[in-house]
Design a protein that fits this description.
Mfa-like_1_N; about 325 residues; single chain; 6-stranded mixed β-sheet; signal; elongated
């Protein structure tokens, strides 16, 4: 077993090799092995070291660096799946052969594409360009799942992520995670948020392409849905923040990356001064013209809720799965 790297470790022997490729001399042959890393996750149903129990990998050998306009050709590793019973168990596969790295002198490179075995509905390789997988976002937020993929390009046995023949596959999140919080405009009042929703969001089944960088999604324009947030208002402010969470970590929406300019968030809440009700109703926030959900981002909408009839303010915190930065926006 290789040294554990971050979250997930896999020591994998891979099947037989083609006869028409150039490989190291027998006394120099280096077997292709893997370790796999899942980027940091904070939602309980995110893919992480405890629940990442199966993935499938395909690879292709190219003459030098691969260009998106070229053809990958026949698979070298053809959809080989690996599983384990629990986080502490070893990875296993029904495949018993061995693959080897092409010799450095051949100038050949290996392209790797991996994804969770149980999530995508299909894997497809077009005549030119990168492979694709299909994925369906559940219409019920509580049932929505995370999706991670790995794409290693132009790899040789001497690449920076290869050590002793072992390639580290870096699995990254490719959906967008959405959460909500609120700031009381009048902290002397008692606020009770009962519902948060957003309308006209692309859902259903999308196709993800393993393009260079973060990849890209192709979504059906007419497959739109409304999503309701499971509100669980915290009694105390989030640590080191000035806002209150509106749900626990399981309530996150896991949705397709997409343009969301002009989309409307609806918030139903009430305010009280002692036992006297000051406001009860639903307010709306329209997302600004540059609003976009990107691949692998956390988006936290912090809603500033007025005591009564004034407009709702919006502060958007946007971050990658592992890093954070903040920007402020004002709803019209």
């Amino acid at each position: 077993m290789k040294k554990i790297l971050l979250a997930v470790t896999a020591a994998l022997a891979i099947t037989s090799c083609s006869q028409n490729e150039e490989f190291e001399a027998p006394n120099q042959q280096t077997k292709i092995d893997f370790t796999s890393v899942v980027r940091k996750a904070t939602r309980a149903t995110d893919t992480n070291s405890n629940n990442f129990l199966g993935f499938t990998v395909s690879s292709y050998i190219t003459d030098g660096d691969y260009s998106e306009t070229g053809a990958l050709g026949a698979a070298y590793m053809d959809g080989i799946s690996y599983t384990k019973d629990n986080a502490a168990a070893p990875w296993t596969t029904t495949d018993k052969g061995t693959y080897y790295w092409p010799s450095i002198s051949s100038g050949k490179k290996v392209q790797f594409f991996a994804y969770p075995t149980t999530e995508p509905t299909s894997y497809s390789l077009p005549s030119t360009g990168y492979p694709t997988i299909s994925f369906t976002v559940d219409g019920t937020p509580a049932n929505q799942k995370d999706l991670v993929v790995a794409h290693a390009t132009n790899v040789t046995s001497e690449s920076s992520k290869v050590a002793g023949g072992t390639l580290t596959l870096d699995f990254k999140h490719v959906l967008t995670r959405i959460n909500f919080a609120f700031i009381p405009d009048d902290p002397l009042l008692t606020y009770a948020v009962t519902a948060v929703s957003i309308a006209d969001i692309k859902g259903g089944t999308g196709k993800y392409s393993f393009n260079a960088g973060d990849g890209e999604w192709n979504l059906a324009a007419d497959a739109t849905s409304s999503y309701s947030y499971t509100v669980k208002q915290s009694a105390d402010k989030v640590e080191n923040k000035n806002y209150y969470s509106l749900a626990d970590t399981n309530a996150s929406w896991m949705l397709f990356p997409q343009e969301v300019n002009g989309k409307v968030i609806s918030i139903t809440y009430s305010t009280k001064q002692g036992t006297m009700e000051v406001f009860s109703g639903t307010k709306k926030v329209t997302l600004p013209s540059d609003a976009k959900w990107a691949v692998g981002q956390n988006v936290l909408y912090v809603l500033t809720l007025p005591a009564g009839a004034a407009k709702v303010g919006l502060n958007t915190e946007v971050s990658e799965w592992n890093t954070a930065d903040e920007k402020e926006e004002t709803a019209k």
